Amino acid sequence: MAKGSDGTSESDWFHKHEKEMLERAAEERERRIQQALAKQKHEELDKLRAAHWLKCPNCGHHMEVVSMECIRLDTCKFCADIYFDRGELESLLLRKIPQRFKFYRRLFGLD
Ligand SMILES: [Zn+2]
Predict the structure, then answer these.
(1) Tell me: the pLDDT tens digits for 59-77?
(2) Please, which residues have CB less than 5 A from ligand 1, an ion?
(3) pLDDT tens per residue across span 17-51
(4) Residue 7 has pLDDT above 90, yes or no
(5) Where do runs of H (alpha helix) occur along the chain?
(6) Which one of 8, 55, 65, 105 is separated from 86 by 20 to 30 angstroms, measured CA to CA?
(7) Same-domain status, 49 and 84
(8) Which residue, among 64, 105, 65, 58, has the nearest Cα to 79 in the 3D structure?
(9) What pTM was estimated for this model as a whole?
(10) Structural domain containing residue 2
């Protein structure tokens, strides 16, 4: 078999480059699969978010966002459940007692 100027045979050269091409093709295929999975996951999360956005966890009806004493509440007009967003309950609990009572009185329709 003919040897090139670098001492390798033609079949060695093809074997080496064919292996590199196959490895690159496998890497590219894996990259495309991962991209497709990431896109699919993102789309599934969007669908889940859209299906459950502002839906009452108790009864499934649509909830309304109400601002009361600067606290954002998600309220269900069907079953009357009330939900606090992350951080809102802590914000309320850190208020002084008269401010908290004012919030509770408004919440229960006493004021
Ligand atoms: Zn409800």
Answers:
(1) 999 999 999 999 999 999 9
(2) 56, 58-59, 61, 76, 78-79, 81
(3) 888 999 999 999 999 999 999 999 999 999 999 99
(4) no
(5) 10-52, 88-93, 97-107
(6) 105
(7) no
(8) 58
(9) 0.58
(10) 1-53
CA of 83 to the centre of ligand 1 (A): 10
Q: Say how many Å lie between the CA of residue 94 and the centre of ligand 1.
A: 27
Distance from the alpha carbon of residue 28 to the mean position of ligand 1, in angstroms: 48
DSSP code of 55? B
Strand order in the sheet with 82-84: 63-68, 71-76, 82-84
Query: Looking at the structure, do residues 73 and 36 belong to the same domain, yes or no?
Result: no
Residues 49, 70: one domain?
no
Q: Locate tokens 């074997």: which residue?
A: 15
| Ligand 1 centroid from CA 65, angstroms | 13
| Mean model confidence pLDDT for the chain | 89
Within 10 angstroms of residue 56's Cβ, the number of other Cβ atoms is 19
Give the distance (Å) from ligand 1 centre to CA of residue 52: 13
1 and 36 belong to one structural domain: yes
Q: Which of 17, 35, 53 is at the close of a domain?
A: 53
